[in-house]
Design brief:
Helices cover about 40% and strands about 15% of the residues. It is an alpha/beta fold. It binds NADP nicotinamide-adenine-dinucleotide phosphate (NAP).
Length: about 325
């Protein structure tokens, strides 16, 4: 069977194109992947298979993720890459080393650029909404970074539809660059936010969605059906284990396994294919701790989900 080539999709109304499957560094690069050769193999394989979008954040492993991913990405042609980083979460105890103030944004981008080893970020995300800073201050700082060539676009992560409407209204009024992309959690196990609020707003504002944790940190692969495997993400991170390994979720994931088996598809690929096919999604950000995981996940591009199966998934994960 021939392999589906990587599709590239626009970030909403913005002209830039991102690979439909992208790769992120949360809890993996600079953290659970401590072997730099493994990190290099995963990143290079992703690039060779058509992934152009690599999603990082300053706070991932407190800068180590930017460093480990940057060391490999620096060896690839910069113009073929879409590199993002993020700002908001505290990087130290300094009261100004957090949030979305002008001071923190302008200082943070320089640190991220140095750690990654690049002159500009393609997309810079506000990693959450900051209740303590007027949104105009944040929008102006992002607009300045675009004018200074430090970033090409800016985006938001886990903002509400109302917050996105407000920042677009301010950007229109003040003639500032507005955010072009929102980054929410979205998977069969986490549908409410995107489908309840965000999608309608991002569509009307011309924003794209790049979505995170499409496998619910690995739970949708079925690897936690019979306990917590040693070395897996949920064996390492207590709060994720507590939030995902509930009886209700595990029961749904087992039923999901039966549906996937009937369709002759692995749970991993079906979960990713479902997310890839959702309206408004520009890119599905994967995580992987090995090349075989990455390769299995990329195989989701070859999966077509029938309308009958979609209906069953809707009923199971309502
Ligand atoms: N904006 C935000 O607030 C935010 C928050 C979270 C994530 N993100 C972004 O989204 C990216 C992806 O999120 P995520 O890592 O949570 O995605 P995910 O796809 O839900 O989980 C990835 C994890 O699942 C396991 N896994 C992946 N493929 C597998 C396979 N084929 N078989 C078995 N296990 C497999 C691996 O963990 P183990 O091997 O360690 O078990 C892997 O690290 C992040 O890197 C980050 O860039 C953003």
């Amino acid at each position: 069977m021939s392999k589906t080539a990587m599709p590239y999709r626009r970030l909403g109304a913005a002209g830039i194109k991102v690979s439909a499957l992208s790769l992120g560094g949360w809890t993996t690069f600079g953290a659970s992947i401590d072997d730099v050769d493994v990190a290099a193999r995963i990143l290079r394989t992703a690039f060779e298979k058509g992934v152009n979008f690599f999603d990082i954040a300053d706070v991932y492993a407190k800068g180590e993720s930017e460093k480990q991913m940057g060391a490999v990405l620096r060896q690839l042609p910069r113009h073929e890459l879409v590199i993002s980083s993020k700002v908001y979460w505290p990087m130290s105890e300094d009261p100004n080393d957090q949030g979305l103030s002008r001071k923190h944004i302008i200082e943070s981008v320089e640190k991220s650029l140095r750690r990654i080893g690049t002159d500009y970020l393609d997309v810079y995300f506000c990693h959450r909404f900051d209740e303590n800073v007027r949104v105009e201050e944040t929008a102006r700082a992002m607009d300045d970074l675009i004018h200074h060539g430090k970033i090409l676009y800016w985006g938001t992560s886990e903002w509400t539809g109302a917050q996105l409407r407000d920042v677009h209204a301010i950007a229109d009024k003040r003639n500032l660059y507005a955010p072009v992309v929102e980054q929410p959690q979205y998977s069969l196990l986490a549908r409410h936010k995107v489908e309840g609020d965000l999608l309608a707003q991002t569509r009307s504002l011309g924003m794209g969605l790049v979505v995170w944790s499409p496998l619910a940190s690995g739970v949708l692969t079925g690897k936690y059906d019979d306990g917590v495997p040693a070395g897996s993400r949920l064996s390492r991170i207590d709060w994720l284990r507590e939030s995902f390994l509930t009886e209700e979720k595990l029961a749904a994931v087992k039923k999901f396994g039966a549906l996937a088996k009937d369709a002759g598809i692995s749970r991993t690929q079906l979960a990713l294919a479902w997310t890839l096919a959702r309206p408004g999604v520009s890119s599905v950000i994967m995580g992987a701790t090995s090349v075989p995981q990455l390769e299995e996940n990329l195989g989701a591009l070859d999966v077509k989900v029938s309308p009958e199966l979609l209906q069953k998934l809707d009923a199971l994960f309502a």
